[in-house]
Design goal:
homodimer; alpha/beta; 11 strands
Chain lengths: ~325, ~325
């Protein structure tokens, strides 16, 4: 039988904590017997939520902490001072190998800092990228870096490409994933100083399947499986994906209410539309892993509901069973 | 009576040249008696197209040129060598003050280079930004820079903010336009080296209405009237807007075909939906001006149809009558 996958879950992080977090954790353990969750946070609040559900107690444990790191707090300070916070405790559980992974919907800054400072980087990894899965009309792509390291260097982008390829191949199951460099033109000589320097490095990297530059316009059409970019650009891509979708869906709903004819039509198309749009929502795919750390750190949306928490927890199984970190070590060490 | 507005139109530029370009030019002169168009390109081809329409011959003139600059040509070389190309001729008409403005759907690179080298910058302007109007659910915003100058400096972004404010106020008619800095977080200290340095400069600029950082997610929701960013980021914002819209609309159409029920609903909502989505299309608002030049240079999409050419030509009226370049000179000189 496979080993259990131990996941520390930050019960206090995010807009819907602890109720949706606890719900998602229970759903995950009920869906897969390989999962053991450590719910980290204020015990009384967690217990109160757990009363609502049935689950195998052997798969779920509470780890009490008193403090909570707020989203607005300066992250470095918060990680240093709030030793008894749910995020720091989750990080320590991973660092001490009591857990394989942690999932948090809390402060992005604190998670990025804690990941590097407490969990620590794999030897050879320059910077751990935040790598969300983004939807496209053809399926999904991995976008990295998406917020961890602004003003990155070319060598770091090459590492992102390698780590992203391992993840897409082993966790998502895409053979020989196509790596694209996010750029403002298709030709090699296009772009800024960073992309111009990075292009030949990616081209000469035998361990990845580099397909060249990808323009932002083609990202939602599924132009590449692994999208490599500097964090500022990655953040803009991700937020535009979310912003345009929500703005457009709002507009469409408004349009459907504009006449009696369109109102009736709107009622008829609603179920099909809902299904279609669900496949294009960034929330359907669990959280974003922070790759290249000594353990798995998964950051989910601050607005996470139970479904996203559940998916984020379940994603830790493939990460452990496929030995992602061993594979990352091999690819990075090979180079250095 | 107002003076005529003379516009040089590149009849050979873009995927649909010369037919859609000529059509758009005729529609513009027929819509507004203040417009005089100089159709620049191969005379026989232009004449052939013009046969299809009626118009006041006093408002439309052909300027014959033999050469055409292709999209794939290296721009600097093309501008230098092809003196008898439609783009270079348009540029010279503006430089020599025979025309107030030029409109082209041709090679972006050649237009950016020609604008700087032939038409020339207003004294004091460091770099002329490409400034498309982008749709939001609330109306429109001006996004600059959107492709002209990658790796820009903070002082250049401040100039973009000033020029963009003049344009939005005088051409689009938005009083005291809200200027936002495109960034990856709302707080002042967020971002990369460029945005961190630019923020206080914008804050201390009395001539603009700076409202702070704007996250990409809020751009489609109309968070600011003037969106200031470096060209790489601006290009990603623009292309994501186009890419997500087209991907999502494709998905929705697919979803509507998924069952008989949704098919019937789809037929009923179609007219309302079409109207709604039209307001969210980047093609409805004419081309993007290249601001800060001694004359107006307007770049339209390579895929421009007659409607976009017409709107781009008509936009030149407000630009001239509102003395945009005089106002830009005042704002830039005030500072220096």
């Amino acid at each position: 039988m496979a080993e259990m996958v131990n996941v520390a879950v930050d019960a206090m992080g995010g807009d819907n904590a602890p109720s949706e977090i606890v719900k998602g954790a229970v759903e995950a353990v009920n869906e897969d017997r390989r999962i053991r969750v450590f719910l980290v946070g204020r015990e009384p609040a967690i217990k109160e939520e757990l009363k609502k559900y049935t689950y195998d107690a052997a798969q779920l444990e509470i780890v009490h902490t008193e403090e909570v790191i707020e989203t607005a707090e300066p992250p470095v300070m918060a990680i240093r001072k709030k030793k008894d916070s749910s995020i720091v405790k989750c990080m320590n559980l991973v660092k001490d190998k009591e857990c394989d992974a942690l999932v948090s919907a809390g402060s992005t800054g604190a998670i990025l800092v804690g990941g590097q400072v407490i969990v620590g980087r794999i030897k050879g990894v320059e910077r751990p990228p935040l790598a969300p899965i983004v939807p496209s009309v053809k399926g999904v792509s991995l976008l990295l870096d998406c917020g961890a390291n602004v003003d990155a260097r070319p060598s770091q982008l090459v590492q992102f490409a390698k780590m992203g390829s391992v993840y897409m191949e082993s966790v998502i199951g895409i053979k020989n994933p196509r790596v694209g460099l996010v750029n403002i033109g298709a030709e090699e000589e296009k772009g800024n100083a960073l992309t111009k320097e990075t292009y030949p490095l990616l081209q000469n990297c035998p361990e990845i399947n580099f397909i060249g530059n990808v323009e932002a316009r083609d990202i939602p059409h599924g132009a590449a499986d692994v999208l490599v970019c500097e964090a500022f650009v990655g953040n803009v891509v991700l937020k535009m994906l979310e912003g345009v979708s929500s703005a457009l869906v709002g507009k469409i709903k408004e349009g459907m209410k504009s006449s009696l004819r369109s109102k009736i039509g709107g009622i008829l198309v609603k179920p099909a539309l809902k299904k279609t749009l669900k496949g294009f929502s960034t929330e359907e795919y669990g959280g974003a892993p922070l790759l290249g750390l000594n353990g798995l750190v998964v950051k989910t949306h601050g607005s996470s509901k139970a479904i996203e928490i559940k998916n984020s927890i379940l994603q830790c199984i493939a990460f452990k069973e496929q030995n992602i970190n061993e594979k990352i070590k091999e690819k990075i060490v090979l180079e250095d």
